[in-house]
Design a protein that fits this description.
Blueprint: E1 15-19, H1 36-40, H2 42-49, E2 54-58, H3 76-86, E3 91-92, H4 99-106, E4 113-115, H5 123-127, H6 130-137, E5 142-145, H7 160-164, E6 170-172, H8 174-188, E7 194-198, H9 203-216, E8 219-222, H10 226-233, E9 237-238, H11 248-258, E10 262-263, E11 267-271, E12 282-286, E13 289-290, E14 295-299, H12 301-312, E15 316-320, H13 333-344, E16 348-351, H14 354-362, E17 371-372, H15 376-383, H16 389-392
Parallel strand pairs: 1-2, 1-5, 2-4, 3-4, 5-6, 7-8, 7-15, 8-10, 9-13, 15-16, 16-17
Antiparallel strand pairs: 11-12, 11-14
Subcellular location: Cytoplasm
Pathway: Carbohydrate degradation; glycolysis; pyruvate from D-glyceraldehyde 3-phosphate: step 2/5
Pfam family, one: PGK
Length: 397
C-alpha cells in the first residue's frame, strides 16, 4: 500500500494542491484553542515551499450548512496562525473555487502559500461533486493528500479532485504516509504477539473492528462501557451501566467466535453518581455483579493487572477506546494502568485517535508510544480492513 510522497515529486515552479486537516477548535472569539493540526501539516507544507513550489491548501472546518460563507467556520484564523508559524505572509481566499480563489491562485509566486476558504461552504464538497472538484483540480499541477482524518470519506477534495487530476502527480503527505505505514503494516504484517485493546461506549461502533481483529490478533482486550453489553450477554448484572440491549445476541456471537482470544473484564469499578464521580459512593465488584443502584465506570484493578500482563509480552499493540471514564479520577485508573503497560513495553504501539489519543495525551504517555493516529474514524475504518478510495487512487511508490 506504499504510496509516492510529496518529497518524491519535483515541485519547483509548480502549483501544489494539498488537502490538509485544519479543522481546528475555535472559541467564541474565533481564536484557535489548539493549533496541533496546523503544526502537524508543517513537514508537507515546508517540503513544497522550501523547494520553490507554489502552495494551495484546502480543508474543511466544522459543520457548515453548505450553502455559502459562515463566519464562525471560516479558515481565516488558521491561515493567520500558519503565517505566524512560518514567519511569512499566507494569502487567504474569500471563497473556494470562485473569482477570488482563482485570481489569488494565479498570482502565486514560487514559495508562496494560499489557503482556500472552507471547502464545506460549497455543497459540492460533501456530495463529491465532479464539477466542484474540477474547478479545484484546474488550479494545480500536483495533488497531495495529507488529511488522514478524512481518508475514509468520499468528499470531493479526497476522491473527485485526484480523479480529475489523473495524469498529474497525485501523492501523500508526511502525515498520511506515516499513518499508512503504521496502520497497514500492523494489520497486514504484525510483529507477534499482536494485541488489540478496544474500549469506548458502544459495541455497535466497533462490531466490524472486533470481527476483523479476532481474525488477525493473538488477543483482543475489551474495556469501556461496551464491556457491559458483553457482561449482559454472559447473564451478568449490570445495574445502571450503559448497555446496548439490542446488541446482546451479537455480543454472544463475538464471545463464541473469540474463544480464548477475547479477554473480558473480571472486575468493575462502579459508582452511583456519574455527575459527581469524585464524591459519589464507589465500589469494586466482580464482573457481572454490579449493584442495581450503581453503574460500571472503569475496569477494575484485577482486570487492569491482567491486561497489563498480556500487553507486556506483545510485539504489536493497537489501541482504540479508553477503559473507563478517564477524564474523571479515580475512574481513570484502568486506562492509566493500560497506558503505562503500553508505554513500558518494547512493542510497536499504535493509538487510534479520538478518545484514546486524548487519554494517552492527558495521562502523559503520548511521547512513549510509537504512533498516535490523527484520525479516529479513519483509523477505525482501516482496522476494519476497509479500502480507502482516497488513498488507493494515488500514485504507488
Amino acid at each position: 500500500m506504499a504510496k509516492k510522497t510529496i518529497d518524491q515529486v519535483d515541485v519547483a515552479g509548480k502549483t501544489v494542491l494539498i488537502r490538509v486537516d485544519f479543522n481546528v477548535p475555535l472559541d467564541e472569539n474565533q481564536s484557535i484553542t489548539d493549533d496541533r493540526r496546523i503544526r502537524m501539516a508543517l513537514p508537507s507544507i515546508k517540503s513544497v515551499i522550501d523547494r520553490g513550489g507554489k502552495l494551495i491548501l484546502m480543508s474543511h472546518l466544522g459543520r457548515p450548512a453548505g450553502d455559502g460563507f459562515e463566519q464562525k467556520f471560516s479558515l481565516a484564523p488558521a491561515a493567520a496562525r500558519l503565517g505566524e508559524i512560518l514567519g511569512k505572509p499566507v494569502a487567504m481566499a474569500k471563497d473556494t473555487v470562485d473569482e477570488d480563489a482563482t485570481a489569488k491562485a494565479s498570482a502565486l509566486k514560487d514559495g508562496d502559500v494560499l489557503v482556500l476558504e472552507n471547502l464545506r461552504f460549497n455543497a459540492g464538497e460533501k456530495k463529491g461533486c465532479e464539477t466542484f472538484a474540477g474547478k479545484l483540480a484546474a488550479m494545480a499541477d500536483v495533488y497531495c493528500n495529507d488529511a488522514f482524518g478524512t481518508c475514509h470519506r468520499s468528499d470531493a477534495s479526497m476522491v473527485a479532485v485526484p480523479q480529475a487530476m489523473a495524469g498529474k502527480p497525485r501523492v501523500v503527505g508526511h502525515l498520511v504516509a506515516k499513518e499508512i505505514k503504521y496502520l497497514s503494516e500492523a494489520i497486514g504484517n504484525p510483529a507477534r504477539p499482536f494485541v488489540a485493546i478496544l474500549g469506548g461506549a458502544k459495541v455497535s461502533d466497533k462490531i466490524n473492528v472486533i470481527n476483523n481483529l479476532l481474525g488477525i490478533c493473538d488477543a483482543v482486550l475489551i474495556g469501556g462501557a461496551m464491556a457491559y453489553t458483553f457482561s449482559l450477554a454472559q447473564g451478568g448484572k449490570v445495574g445502571g451501566s450503559l448497555v446496548e440491549k439490542d446488541k446482546v445476541d451479537l455480543a454472544k456471537e463475538l464471545i463464541d467466535k473469540g474463544g480464548d482470544k477475547l479477554h473480558l473484564p473480571v472486575d468493575t469499578h462502579c459508582g452511583d453518581d456519574f455527575g459527581n464521580i469524585a464524591g459519589c459512593n464507589k465500589v469494586i465488584v466482580a464482573n457481572g455483579e454490579i449493584p442495581d443502584d450503581m453503574e460500571g465506570l472503569d475496569i477494575g484493578p484485577e482486570t487492569a493487572k491482567k491486561y497489563a500482563e498480556v500487553i507486556k509480552n506483545a510485539k504489536t499493540v493497537v489501541w482504540n477506546g479508553p477503559m473507563g471514564v478517564f477524564e474523571k479520577p479515580p475512574m481513570d485508573a484502568g486506562t492509566k494502568t493500560v497506558a503505562q503497560a503500553v508505554a513500558d513495553s518494547d512493542c510497536i504501539s499504535i493509538i487510534g485517535g479520538g478518545d484514546s489519543a486524548a487519554a494517552v495525551d492527558q495521562l502523559g504517555f503520548a511521547d512513549q508510544v510509537s504512533h498516535v493516529s490523527t484520525g479516529g474514524g479513519a483509523s477505525l475504518a482501516m482496522l476494519e480492513g476497509k479500502a480507502f478510495a482516497a488513498v488507493d487512487l494515488l500514485d504507488d511508490a
